[in-house]
Amino acid sequence: MPVNDVQRRRRFEALVLPHLPAAYNLARWITSNGADAEDVVQEAFLRAFRFFDSYRDGDARAWLLKIVRNTAHTWLKTNHPSGRVAMEPELLDSLPSVDGRWSPTGDGTSDPAAMAASAADVQRLRTAIAELPVDFREVLVLREFEELSYRAIAEVAGIPIGTVMSRLSRARDQLATIMRTQDGGMP
Amino acid sequence: MTHDEAQRLLDAYLDGELDVASSLAVEAHAHTCEACTTWLAERRLLVAQLRSTPLRFPTPPGLSIRLAVEPEQRRSRLFFGSWPQSLAAGLLLATGGFFLGHKLPRAPDLSDQLVSAHVRSALSPATVDVLSSNHHTVKPWFAARLPFSPPVPELAGGGDTLLGGRLDYIEHTRVAAIVYRHGDHLVNVFIWPRTAFIPPAASATSIDGFHLATAQVGDFSAVLVSDMSIDELTAFRQRWSAAAGP
C-alpha cells in the first residue's frame, strides 16, 4: 500500500476518530433514535475520510461535527420531510442512569434522596430538550454538551453567529419555561 | 447601554462570548438593574444544570466504523446515491481497538502503546472505571487493584480537573491510568513502579498529533499523554510532578 495512504489513514485515526463520541451524541440528538444515529455516524465518517484532504489544521472535532450535522439533516429531509420526528421511548431510557457510577457530586457517594431528586430532573430535561425544534436543539447540544464557541457552532451549523445567539437564547428560554411549569420548581 | 440592548446580550455575556467593551457595559447595566441580575442568576442555574446532568448519549460499545464501502453491508435505508469505488484499504475500526487489514512490520513500541491506550480511552464510553475528582476515593481504588499505590494529585485550581482512573496494560504490565481534563483536552497519566520497565526518554515526543511527556516521582515512572500542545503538556507535567510530591 502506498506510504501516503498509510499516513493519511493513521492521521485520520489519530485526529478524527477520537471524536466519535461527540459525533454519535450530536447525531443521536438530531435523529432521535439510536439506529439512525449509527447510520448517520457511519455515513459521516465515510465522507470525512473521503474529504480528509480538505481538513487543514484546526479544530478537528468541529470539522467532523459539521459533516455529522449536515449528514443528519439530509437524513431528516429524506426520511421525515414533514419535519415531525416521533420521539422514541428509547431516547429517554438509554441515557446513563443516575445511580451506579455517576452521582451529582462526582465523588462516588450515593445519597438516595439526592439521586431520587436528580432522576426526576434528568427525565424532565431529557424530554424538554427532545421537544425543542431541531434547529434550537442542535445549537443547545453543541453549546452545553460539546462546549463549542459561538463561532464554532456557526461554522458547524452553517448559520451566522447572530442566529446562533438567538437560537441558543430561545432554546434556553423554552427549557426554562418547561422546567418551571413542573412541580412549581425552577431548577 | 439601555436595558433593551443589554437584555439581547445577556446570554452571550454569560457565555463569555462578548468583547471586553460590551461585557463591561452589560455588567455596568446589570449592577443597576434588578431584573437583569435576577435573570442572569436563574440562567446560570439552568446552564449549570444542563452541564452537570448526564445528557450526552454514550456511544454504543458495539458501534464499528468502516472506512471502506462494501455493498452487501449497507442497510437498505441508507440514502446516499452511488458511492465511489471502495477505498484502496479495507478497514474495520471498532471502538474497542484497531484492526488493520495487513500485518504491521514490527511490534508496537512503548510510545505507540501509550498513545494507543490514550486514544482508546478517549473513544470508549468508559474512559475511567472509578469516576471521582477526589484522591481519597481514587487512590484506594488503585491500591485495592494493583500491587502498588500510585500518587493521585487532584490538581485543583489550574484549569485542570481530576476525572478518575482505570487500569491499563502496557509492556505486559498492569499500570495505573489517571485521567484529567484540561480545557477541551483529555490527559492520561500512566504510572508504574520504575523497576517494571523503562519509560520513553524524558524529552517530550509526538505521535500522530499526540504528545508524550515523562516524569519520575519517588519510586514511580509516569508518562503523560494528551493532544494539547507540547508547551501546555510540559507545563501540565510541571504542575503534576510538583503536586505528586517526592
Commentary on this structure:
The complex is a heterodimer of chains A (187) and B (246). Chain A is mostly helical. In chain A, 68% of the residues lie in helices and 0% in strands. Chain A has helices spanning 3-15, 20-31, 34-50, 60-79, 89-93, 112-131, 134-145, 150-157, 161-180. In chain A, helix 4 (60-79) packs across helix 8 (150-157). Chain A is elongated. Chain B is of the alpha+beta class and 246 residues long. In chain B, helix 1 packs across helix 2. The termini of chain B are far apart. Chains A and B meet through helix 1, helix 2, helix 3, helix 4 and helix 6 of A and helix 3, helix 4 and strand 4 of B.
Key descriptive features of the protein:
heterodimer, A: 187 residues, 9 helices, B: 246 residues, alpha+beta, 7-stranded antiparallel beta sheet, 3-stranded antiparallel beta sheet, 10 strands, 33% helix
Radius of gyration of chain A from CA coordinates: 18 Å
Please tell me what the overall shape of chain B is: elongated
Mean pLDDT of chain A: 80
Q: How much strand content do the residues of chain A show?
A: under 5%
Number of strands of chain B: 10
> Main beta sheet of chain A, described?
none
Low-confidence runs of chain A = 89-93, 97-117
**Strand neighbour order, sheet with most strands of chain B:** 4-5-6-7-10-9-8
Strand runs of chain A, count: 0
Structural class, from helix and strand content of chain B? alpha+beta
H and E string of chain B: HHHEEEHEHEEEEEEH
Distance between the termini of chain B: 55 Å
* Elements of chain A, N to C (H/E): HHHHHHHHH
Strand fraction of chain B: 15-25%
Distance between the termini of chain A: 57 Å
Tell me, rounded to a whole number, the average pLDDT of chain B: 80
Structural class of chain A: mainly alpha
Rg over CA atoms of chain B: 23 Å
What best-fitting shape of chain A do the alpha-carbon axes yield? elongated
